Amino acid sequence: MRVLALLALLAACDEQDVHLDDTHGGDDTSAHGYMVDVVADDVTVAVDLSTLATTTFEGNPAVELPDVVAASGLGVTWSERTYDFEGSDGYRPSGNDCPPVDWTAAQLGYLFPDSGNLVWDEAAGLRGCYYVDAMVIVDVQDAAR
Prior knowledge:
Elements: H1 2-15, E1 35-40, E2 43-48, E3 55-57, E4 60-64, H2 65-71, E5 81-87, E6 101-102, H3 103-106, E7 109-111, E8 118-120, E9 135-142
Parallel strand pairs: 1-9
Antiparallel strand pairs: 1-2, 3-4, 4-7, 5-6, 5-9, 7-8
């Protein structure tokens, strides 16, 4: 009888879909979506992309970069800042001769909420080094920095 109970328990476990996604520091994302940290003035706020409105970009649902930084609730004047980004692998455009972007360009950035990939509207005129896979940090910097 105990063997049957054990087999039933194992069968039930096989049917469960337990999924831990490494979208943000290995957090269990079953309660939230892809997370991005917005950092400004030594303050970090995690933003859940699944809570933000999406638009269609390149045929896919995407979150506009300005919506991500605004959702942080950080009380900064966005137009007076520059923006650098970091992928989950540590890649940063600024580490590849691509200086942080200004607010005008930042307004043309999009994040795909399923992957966190940062892409740009062609109108931004940015080189390929600004495309960041699995972005985890938006580094909002003082423009004078």
